[in-house]
Amino acid sequence: MKPFANDSDSLGIGADLTVENGSDRISIYGSISITRDQVGLADARTLLTILQKAVAVMEADAKLPAKIQDKPTSQSPNPFA
N or C: which end of the chain has fewer CB within 10 A? Predict the structure, then answer.
């Protein structure tokens, strides 16, 4: 996954942790147990790599804003009303 490259990539780490890519944010949700074994090491390395890549992209961005502006949400009419 290349952080901030698109709004479609998604990666599962372990059984319950999901990392979703976005052009303006990366969302990480769920939970993970980093076990002290080969599987835990692989999961920890995957998560570490994603975060290191995200930090590198942000550090290289000369126009990184102080705080991102959230996009306004729109409401659709309730089709069941």
Answer: C
